[in-house]
Write a structure and sequence with these properties.
Layout lengths: L28 H25 L7 H30 L8 H30 L10 H55 L2 H16 L3 H21 L5 E2 H19 L3 E6 L8 E3 L3 H12 L8 E8 L4 E7 L14 H12 L5 E5 L2 E7 L1 E2 L1
Parallel strand pairs: 2-4
Antiparallel strand pairs: 1-3, 3-8, 4-5, 5-7, 6-7
């Protein structure tokens, strides 16, 4: 009696948790190696199954050969059918988002596909043997269909439980890594904000305002400085923040820098307020880019450093551009990890990468905007 066999741990085409596509597995050397390995397992297991379902066949090599051929045929057909079904479901429903719905869909589609394959194979065999198709409705054929389908369901439940556990564990590992990356980024951001250079430059600018007897600007400077620190502390426990909040913080940060640098820095922000709604970014992501611009480029009154921030609402991206004018940094002034850490954080949050590079004499960084 034939038995279905789905070897998800051996062959990517039938794997419940494989990221490889069933449709291209036969076009890769590794895929062919997996196919050969799986077929060897099927051939070996079919010997055991044949002896279990028809022990009397050992007394006749011809009877055993027929039972063995049937078992290999049914097992291979059911294995491929379930493999393609699972691969199709993997591309549309994940175990981590809707596990209950995924389980019901998998069992329903797998069960329906298995019954269809078994009926078709039996129909072909009846035609080859010259027997009427009406035998498909006989009681013996009923059991010949029911038993392999039942075993298919049992094996599928085991494999899908394993797939759910593996995806759940992978999601947990990714969440833990994201938490670690976020914690490192928060510490780096906080450390940069309380860095002596930042405080020294800010206090120097404030001192100049006081000496110029400009109390209104001095008061505004102090308020903007307090807003910078308040935002850093308020956002340190958040994974994402609204883009509007990040831009408001960036305006405070740039006000401090513009007060210090004067006409040596020009800033252009093309950000319609109505287009900001619904977008999110990692906290302090924009500030890191702005800080990098000011840290790595020289700015002069006679030759200002141009900085432009723009939003593409349709592409869901935020772009920061600056004229590229590299300056030599003092030892220890920059760790060189800020942009790489931000890219790593984005890799955990979205499939859309952070993109950076030179373009027409400018350094350009494009951040993906997240939509919850």
């Amino acid at each position: 009696m034939p038995v279905s066999l789905r070897l998800s741990s051996v062959l990517p085409v039938a794997s419940s948790d494989s990221a490889a596509s069933s449709l291209d597995v036969f076009h890769r050397p590794a895929g062919w190696a997996a196919v050969r390995k799986a077929m060897r397992v099927i051939l070996l297991m079919s010997v055991v199954i044949s002896l279990l379902v028809n022990p009397g066949a050992v007394r006749s090599w011809s009877a055993f050969a027929i039972t063995y051929a049937y078992t290999v045929m049914y097992s291979t057909g059911l294995w491929l059918t379930n493999g393609y079904v699972v691969d199709w479901l993997n591309r549309r429903y994940t175990w981590t988002v809707q596990p209950g719905r995924r389980l019901l869909l998998t069992l329903a589609v797998s069960l329906g596909g298995s019954v269809l394959v078994i009926v078709l194979m039996n129909a072909v065999l009846l035609l080859l043997l010259g027997k009427p198709l009406g035998r498909l409705l006989s009681s013996s054929m009923y059991w010949q269909i029911l038993i392999p389908v039942a075993i298919t369901v049992i094996v599928s439940l085991f494999n899908h439980s394993r797939a759910f556990f593996l995806q759940w564990r992978e999601a947990a590992v990714r969440a833990e890594r994201l938490e670690k990356e976020t914690a490192v980024a928060r510490l780096d951001s906080l450390r940069r904000q309380v860095d002596p250079h930042f405080l020294f430059n800010s206090l120097n600018a404030l001192t100049s305002l006081v000496e110029e007897n400009d109390p209104a600007r001095a008061v505004r400077f102090i308020r903007q400085l307090s807003q910078v620190y308040r935002y850093v502390l308020d956002s340190e426990s958040q994974e994402l923040v609204p883009l509007a909040d990040e831009l408001k913080f960036a305006e405070s940060y740039l006000y401090l820098q513009k007060t210090r640098l004067g006409e040596a820095l020009t800033v252009e922000m093309s950000l319609p307020p109505a287009a900001l709604a619904g977008f999110y970014v990692p906290p302090l992501a924009l500030q890191l880019l702005l800080e990098n611009v000011l840290k790595h480029n020289a700015a002069y009154q006679a030759d200002p450093l141009h900085l432009r921030v723009s939003l593409d609402a349709q592409a869901h991206t935020l772009t920061v551009r600056n004229t590229r004018r590299p300056r030599r940094l003092a030892p220890g002034e920059s760790s060189g990890r800020g942009l790489a850490n931000l890219a790593a954080r984005y890799a955990f949050l979205t499939d859309q990468p952070l993109v950076s590079g030179e373009e027409n004499g400018e350094f350009v960084v494009t951040l993906p905007l997240l939509v919850l």
